[in-house]
Design a protein that fits this description.
GlgE; TIM Barrel; six-stranded mixed sheet; elongated; carbohydrate metabolism; eight-stranded parallel sheet; Methane Monooxygenase Hydroxylase, Chain G, domain 1; Immunoglobulin-like; EC 2.4.99.16; 4 domains; alpha/beta; single chain; 32 strands
Length: 801
């Protein structure tokens, strides 16, 4: 049996020998009171390892539609599992109040009990989204990130329904019940925006991070649907009273309905609210008043407000729980800065020979990243570099005696992946480097390329880890027409578990030194199952560690790597340059795919220099920076971008004099004159100030009349911002790095909750200039002036006290 096969079909996965155990369903949110385990059920698999927490097992009972009370559902699940109900209740810590909680109440008894999986309740609930591979894997969000859930909720005939999204924390406690709104009446589609936990910028080494950790893990969302008895009655009552048809029966029914509503425990009414309903019910029966006056007692703003927040919910039905894995800060919202330590502080000596930098001089790279507003520094491999078949400048086959080689040709007689290159310093030097990064509130990400030079110790110690040719020689890496004579690829078919144990050991070593993120080079050339094993083992011991996949490959493989545990992914953003390409890619990145694959936008890397950036000069660099920083919550810059390093190799889409193969001596004083460094700083300041930039689930493309101008909005509701104000950004970018472009930008003010009857004020976050905008707006952008607008909508909302 090949347990490494990557299978997206859940049934195939089960048939291949993976045994799943799904957490017990929980409708009332009080596991302890019901005698159920608190926390998450484990999921076991074929070779005795645990899935990472974001891989969720699927059980048929998972999809039941409940029409029992929450208590009944839990006790039935417990009884079915052969577990006795608990006799004691343990008190738990009261959670912090959620700003989005609308009402929290115990579910009433239901008229129809569901006895078999797949049976319908009194209200029908279908197509709960997001769902990743039919809920085999959990959707993923960063703590505090705004996200959207949806479902089709309906009943027979023209019966009105209502719907609520119920959010539960990892301990099963209900944190919020949020009313859902009709997105598409014809499709019976209801949606709601949620937020799991509170947004945080804390780092894993901060003392306060312990409080953040308590909010991480598997949260759950259930959709509740019910018959909207009041809404249906009011609709008919208005018609009948208006034409004086069957008035007494209609008003009597309404009075009885309000009386029943006031007594319903599920509505969670306070004494004043119950009094309001009862007095209205009584007044409706005053026959000395005309029919229209009597109706107003049930048809007014006070009753409507209660209907919105504390409704009467007849025929209440609940979907099964859908799991969301809530991950730590920077799992989605992050700003990366890459540099080579050996080039930081490098200089030419009196003979014109390059003298490389080390971890001491590389502190300058940390300080530059901090000054420009980045929060993650990413280093290439820092291990000893092999000598055999070492590559020269730009990958030349013959290296000179002073050529440093590629850091991706890993391993020499000095050591392998667990050793610091002595030319950079010692392990203590690296630890001091990480400590300085932490003092600057920077995380350190380390490139982990699982490959070896011919001189790597593994070649002698583990010859079965490599694939040999018929003549007994080891095959070097190839990706035709490219050949990598200085690199041996790993063969995973002979000792998978041995390789896994060694990689886990090495990663733990670097984590102990201060690394909190691994950027994995070409993970798509290794078995997905291997990464699933390794990431599960590493994050079990170090749950704060994140993984970025550098996988430029087919979509199915990138998706599988995300399921396997990679938190973020490189993507094809560098090659999306036209308006249609960008609009499609922005929607893909910030759409349903954002629940499992967090694309990180990089304009350039040591491996990527597109013709657009090569030819477009400063303007092209500015354009791509704006699109990267505001088109995705996660973005990155490779150093030298500030200096417009855009000379391209004739035979490859990457820089000439490539830093992968040589040490670069840079004059950073030119950065201020060029201006890109200042722009990068401004973009990161905008991102840090505006909650709208933090989510993969809040981007809307705005129509523009010019194919060279792209516009989009990002919006986070006031319920999810620190000051209680809705945060709306409108980004407009000229995609032409050579010419001035003009266009009209259409904004659907109603859809974005903006004023529809009069203009509203917008302020450009890059220049400080202000404008009045409304439905259709004129813009003019030129590469020699402003390549973009980043407008903040000044709505005039008052902050929360």
């Amino acid at each position: 049996m090949d347990n490494r096969a990557t299978i997206h079909n859940p049934q195939r996965l089960c048939d291949n020998g993976t045994n799943f155990v799904h957490p017990a369903l929980n409708s009332c949110g009080n596991e302890e009171a019901c005698g159920l385990p608190t926390g998450n059920a484990s999921t076991m698999w074929t070779i005795g390892k645990e899935f990472p927490p974001f891989v969720q097992a699927r059980n048929l009972s998972r999809e039941k539609l409940h029409t029992m009370t929450g208590m009944e559902a839990q006790h039935n699940e417990t009884e079915a599992a052969g577990k006795p109900a608990a006799k004691k209740t343990t008190r738990t810590r009261k959670p912090r109040a959620s700003k989005q909680a609308t009402f929290i109440a115990e579910a009433p008894a239901m008229p129809i009990a569901i006895k078999e999986p797949g049976q319908f309740g009194r209200v029908n609930i279908l197509n709960c989204q997001p769902s990743v591979e039919d809920d085999v894997y959990a959707a993923r969000v960063e703590i505090g990130e705004q996200f959207t859930v949806s479902a089709q909720v309906f009943m027979e005939g023209r019966t009105k329904v209502g719907a609520t999204a119920v959010l539960k924390n990892p301990r099963g406690r209900i944190m919020a019940r949020v009313p859902m709104t009709v997105e598409n009446a014809g499709l019976d589609l209801y949606t709601a925006k949620l937020q799991a936990g509170e947004h945080s910028t804390l780092n894993p080494w901060d003392a306060e991070f312990a409080e953040v950790k308590k909010q991480l893990g598997n949260w759950r969302v259930a959709i509740e649907g019910w018959e909207d008895t009041y809404g249906a009655w009011l609709h008919d009552a208005r018609i009948k009273v208006d034409v004086l048809s069957d008035v007494e029966n209609t008003l009597t029914s309404g009075s009885e309905l309000l009386t029943r509503w006031a007594s319903t425990r599920d509505a969670n009414l306070n004494a004043e609210q119950r009094k309001t309903l009862r007095e209205a019910a009584k007044s409706m029966m005053d026959t000395s008043l005309d029919a229209k006056s009597r109706l107003t007692f049930a048809d007014n703003a006070d009753i409507e407000a209660l209907h919105e927040t504390n409704p009467l919910r007849d025929g209440l039905t609940s979907s099964g729980d859908h799991v969301f894995h809530v991950e730590r800060p920077k799992s989605s919202f992050s700003a990366w800065y890459q540099f080579f330590p050996r080039s930081e502080g490098a200089y030419l000596d009196d003979n014109g020979k390059k003298v490389q930098g080390n971890f001491h001089t590389a502190v300058s790279g940390l300080e530059r990243a901090k000054a420009e507003g980045f929060n993650i520094v990413y280093l290439p491999p820092i291990f000893p570099i092999g000598v055999t078949n070492r590559k020269g400048p730009d990958g030349a086959l013959n290296a000179g005696p002073d050529d440093p080689g590629s850091p991706f040709g890993i391993g020499s007689e000095l050591g392998g992946h667990d050793t610091v290159d002595p030319l950079l310093g010692t392990m203590d030097d690296f630890k001091a480097f990480c400590q300085r990064a932490h003092e600057l509130n920077l995380e350190v990400a380390l490139d982990f390329a699982l490959q070896c030079s011919p001189d790597h110790p593994w070649v002698k110690e583990h010859p079965n880890w490599f694939r040999t040719k018929p003549d007994g020689s080891i095959a070097y890496a190839e990706n035709p027409p490219k050949k990598y004579q200085d690199i041996y690829p790993i063969d995973f078919d002979n000792d998978l578990e041995g390789i896994e144990r060694e990689v886990e050991r090495i990663m733990n070593l670097w984590i102990d030194a201060g690394v909190t993120i691994f950027r994995v080079d070409n993970p798509h050339t290794k078995p997905v199952r291997f990464w699933q094993d390794v990431i599960a083992a590493v994050t079990k011991k170090h749950p704060e560690v994140l993984f970025l996949a550098e996988a430029f490959t087919r979509p199915a493989m990138v998706r599988a790597l995300s399921y396997a545990g990679f938190t973020q992914s490189h993507c094809y953003f560098p090659w999306r340059n036209t308006k249609p390409q960008l609009e499609e890619f922005l929607q893909e990145t910030n759409g349903k795919g954002g629940y499992y694959q967090h694309n990180t936008f990089w304009p350039t890397t040591p491996d990527i220099l597109t013709a657009y950036v090569r030819d477009g000069g400063v303007a092209a660099h500015a354009i791509r920076a704006v699109l990267a920083a505001l088109g995705s919550p996660s973005w990155g810059i490779y150093n030298g971008y500030e200096l417009i390093e855009n000379r391209q190799r004739a035979d490859a889409e990457e820089q000439s004099s490539n830093e992968k193969f040589e040490i670069k001596v840079r004059d950073w004083s030119a950065a201020n004159r060029i201006g890109i460094s200042k722009l990068l700083t401004s973009l990161n300041e905008i991102r840090s100030k505006h909650a709208a930039t933090t989510s993969y689930h809040n981007l809307t493309i705005l129509p523009s009349a010019n194919e060279n101008i792209i516009a989009f909005a990002r919006q986070t509701e006031g319920r999810f911002t620190k000051d209680g104000r809705t945060d709306t950004l409108i980004v407009v970018v000229n995609l032409d790095p050579y010419n001035e472009q003009q266009s009209s930008i259409h904004v659907d003010a109603k859809a974005l909750g903006l004023p529809t009857e009069h203009p509203y004020r917008v302020k450009d976050q890059l220049t400080g200039r202000e404008y009045d905008w409304s439905w259709d707006n004129f813009v003019s952008l030129a590469p020699w002036a402003d390549v973009a607008h980043v407008f903040h909508v000044e709505t005039g909302e008052q902050p929360l006290d």
